[in-house]
From TrEMBL:
This is Ig-like domain-containing protein. One of its GO terms (molecular function) is transmembrane signaling receptor activity. InterPro entries: Ig-like_dom, Ig-like_dom_sf, Ig-like_fold, Ig_Fc_receptor, Ig_sub, Ig_sub2. The keyword Disulfide bond applies. Residues 81-155, 170-252 form the Ig-like domain. GO terms for cellular component: external side of plasma membrane. One of its GO terms (biological process) is immune response. It comes from Silurus asotus. It holds the Pfam family Ig_2. Keywords: Disulfide bond, Signal.
Length: 441
């Protein structure tokens, strides 16, 4: 952007000997006097812009000329954009990263934007764009600049926003002061994340012995009820007893999970729930139209929620069939326990490790792999898909291929998180086109 740094106004005369010059800006007084016919403003500001006139004078009893015609000096603001990277400038492989070019004080609606990575042009020309499932090669220096359509003013190029993509986060456990103890001692378990220290919430688990349906003894991780920890991830046992002997593990979750599910984040939660309710109400008629659902015959909200979750994968089908042991696509989302069925036994033989909703008579549980991670009342089952999306996002999990189309539709339609064209599948493009046509968009 070109900025006026010096303003010079001159009055042409045949000779300047004996003359003094007087300069006046419109609505400002007194005049500024100079010995020469030039007037220089250094370190010019926007406020220095305006109409300027000059006149000359000489003699003891000063004789003044008439004022000159006015000259307009236009000083434009030195606009420099800022690159904003969310959720952080240091992320892990598989996360979704959003870039935004913000021009402070310049407004946003009338600007067109250009993006650069390591000084090479990118194909994006919008104020904001996202990279889904970032990899190490996405690391680099991102800059932007703006072109204002109203006056073709071009901003300066921004300072670089530096994105660093690391491999999947790894949790490391240490023990202080030592792992060999006597009863009555105190011990602290520490959980740290390599290459990252902020924004994590920690939970602790211990291996518990149990007998499976075949009568064999096995171990499974069990969440310690008082183990939730914020930054630092320390868990202290004091005083220790023989019952504390065992294997301890930690799991770290980025603050994104807390942000999404926090009861204090009412605005975000309300907005997403409203979009989900709208999506469900439209999906009922969409499912009936596609002949994968029957008109609801019950007022029981739990039964209707189960019917919806079982039908969604067929509404937005993927090209890849589910594993044979899974029988049908909906089992990648939901499993309703039979009266005598043990949830741990089911998880042990389940062929997928993706998040799943387990429903029994009274409660619902979210499990990942063989590990239960959350429970919620059964009367919230109609929001079960949101619980699953929370964990896919917070733990940066890859969508299973057999339900990838459905989850991608929920990502764009409910969470309103765009998927770049390069990351879409033909199944998703077909499904979203049919859906948009049905809802009239």
């Amino acid at each position: 952007m070109e900025v006026i740094t010096d303003a010079e106004l001159e009055e042409e005369t045949k000779s300047t000997a004996g003359w003094k010059f007087y300069w006046r800006k419109y609505k400002q007084w007194p005049e500024t006097e100079t010995e020469t016919h030039s007037y220089t403003i250094t370190s010019v500001n926007v406020s220095d812009g305006g109409h300027y006139r000059c006149r000359a004078g000489r003699g003891n009893q000063v004789y003044y000329t008439h004022y000159s015609d006015a000259l307009w000096v236009n000083v434009t603001e030195n606009l420099k954009p800022v690159v904003i990277i969310r959720p952080d400038s240091h992320v892990f492989r598989g996360e979704t990263v959003t870039f935004r070019c913000k021009i402070q004080g310049g407004g946003d609606t009338e600007w067109q934007f250009s993006w650069y990575k390591n000084n090479n042009p990118l194909y994006h020309n919008t104020q904001e764009f996202s990279h889904n499932s970032v990899i190490h090669e996405d690391s680099g220096n991102y800059t932007c600049r703006g072109l204002r359509s109203s006056d073709t003013q071009i901003s300066e190029i921004s300072d670089a926003g530096i994105l660093t993509v690391s491999e999947t986060a790894e949790a490391v456990v240490s023990v202080s002061p030592q792992s060999w103890l006597t009863e009555g001692d105190s011990v602290t378990l520490n959980c740290e994340i390599k290459s990252s220290s902020t924004g994590w919430t920690f939970s602790w688990y211990t291996d518990v012995l149990y007998r499976d349906s075949q009568g064999s003894y096995r171990y499974r991780p069990e969440l310690l009820s008082d183990s939730s920890r914020g930054s630092g991830g320390s868990y202290t046992l004091s005083p220790v007893t023989l019952n504390h002997t065992g294997v301890y593990m930690c799991r770290a979750v980025l603050g994104e999970l807390c942000r999404i599910v926090s009861k204090d984040n009412t605005a975000y939660i309300k907005e997403v729930k409203e979009r989900w309710d709208t999506f469900q109400s439209q999906a009922i008629f969409y499912g009936i139209m596609k002949k994968v659902m029957k008109p609801p015959m019950t007022l029981n909200t739990e039964e209707r929620a189960i019917n919806m979750l079982k039908s969604l994968p067929a509404m937005f089908p993927s090209a890849v069939a589910p594993p044979k042991k899974l029988e049908r696509e909906s089992e990648a989302l939901l499993h309703v326990l039979m009266p005598s069925e043990d949830p741990n036994t089911y998880l042990q033989r389940r062929p997928l490790s993706c998040p799943v909703l387990i429903v029994d008579k009274e409660n619902c549980m979210v499990a990942i792999g063989t590990t239960p991670v959350a429970t919620f009342p059964k009367n919230h089952l109609h929001e079960g898909a949101l619980y699953l999306m929370v964990y896919y996002y917070a733990l940066h999990l890859t969508y299973p291929k057999c339900i990838a189309t459905l989850l991608s539709v929920l990502q764009t339609e409910v969470l309103q998180d765009e998927i770049h064209e390069r990351d879409t599948t033909s199944s998703y493009r077909k499904a979203i086109t049919e859906w948009k046509k049905f809802i009239g968009e």
